Amino acid sequence: MTPPRKKKMNLKQRYALMTRGLDWETSYQKMDDVFPYDTFEGIKITDWSKWEDPFRLTMDAYWKYQGEKERKLYAVLDSFAQNNGQLGISDARYVNAIKLFLTGVTPLEYQAHRHFAHLGRHIRGAGPRVAAQMQSLDELRHAQTQIHTISHYNKYFDGFAEFPHMHDRVWYLSVPKSFFDDACTAGPFEFFTAISFAFEYVLTNLLFVPFMSGAAYNGDLATVTFGFSAQSDEARHMTLGIEVIKFMLEQHPDNLPIVQKWVDKWFWRGHKMLGLVAMMMDYMLPKRIMSWKEAWEIYFTEAGGALFEDLSRYGLRVPKYADIATEEAEHISHQNWAIFYQYTQAAGFHTWLPTDEEMAWLSEKYPNTFDKYYRPRFEMWREMEAKGERFYNNALPQLCQTCQIPMGYTEPGDPTKIGFRSTEYKGERYHFCSDGCKDIFENEPEKFAQAWLPVHQIFQGNCGGADLGDVLKWYRMDNGTDNLDYSGSPDQQQWDAWQAARKKVAG
Ligand code: FE
Ligand code: ZN
Hints:
- The protein is mainly α and 507 residues long.
- The protein has helices at 11-18, 31-34, 59-82, 95-104, 106-122, 126-154, 163-167, 174-184, 188-217, 221-251, 255-273, 275-284, 292-311, 322-328, 332-342, 356-365, 370-386, 435-443, 445-448, 454-459, 468-475, 490-506, and strands spanning 410-411, 414-418, 421-425, 428-432.
- Helix 12 crosses helix 15 (332-342).
- The structure holds fe (iii) ion (FE) and zinc ion.
- Residues 272, 400, 402-403, 405, 432-434, 437 line the site of zinc ion (ZN).
């Protein structure tokens, strides 16, 4: 007699057994003691089993998929290095966008890895716990693949070598760093709302799509490859983001006002942080793909509009100040690039003024604002450069207590006036760039009053000394190499030498 064949389970059954089937209610210890973090925010969950994750990926399938992706990625990276792929990029100015990515974004991937690992331990429901655990592994992989990719550029260009050291110290890097620090010091549901929903679901396309198509368009195949490898994990992360929001809203009506406040907060914080990407798209890519304004229209106004329409059945509304963020999409890249131009002496990448051709592109893409408000300033700076009076701002700027960006943004409705807001807390006055940032502070003053603000720290003597040279040393930036204009930099000189050598070979 042949033994009965074991019935093969389908994917859904396997998944249930491999995740929920391994979970249990504790009996020796109280569940509240084992999972101490998932209640203090006030989010009420009545039935964790209602959690549905559409991905249903078991751990063994996960390792198989990810292993396959890694093999492909490293094959491409090897050939990029062996074929001197750095010679094929559009122009060495492009590399400055990658410097910003490695110093600003990659350490956030590592922070995400750590905090999703924390959630993979501390969420009471097995469904989201498993999803967080996988995402934690994804984020570690993202950090590693980015560092490996970019290590190739580090052999040929300045500004990369000290990226982890810089991330914790440099003034503009405290913008993305403080964003993540804020999320990681929040409770688990706020972290999910901040990172999985507001950032990965609502805003991530504004980071990855322009960055990766920008890389492709500028001949950087190494970055494209890690980008696509990460983007395929992103689909899972976005699913987690939308599932968390729907789950919270379906579980208890008391959750709505809490979730709404988080959505408002993290939309605004995300919008401010993405101003760095806006500047990269409009000013730093030698070959442009689309303007920030166009990207905002497609990925926020249209895609986000449809999303919030869908979520309105739960009572959730469009994030507060979304209209102001949309108005700012006409200005933010120009204002940010102007800030970096003025403070290029303290930045770990190079800046330059847009060429005539680039200014024509900016006029076409920003017919309402560029010629009127920004072209005259760039042209004046160009004249100053020509006279040998290149403009540097040697005063340290006031920073927004919430987003930590220098106060270079203008009033909604009046692009000729710098926006300032302030509030008092325990006898001290705090300053903000916008109503959005002021609201965030006023909702959690005890948290944001402690912010580590780079300019304040310099004034307090905590950043190596009082002079620019001292601070640069403390940042581990090489004066005259990592900072200042692209024109005249060692990066530029080397790039020009390569191009000259190629012309000679081509005859
Ligand atoms: Fe990631
Ligand atoms: Zn701000």
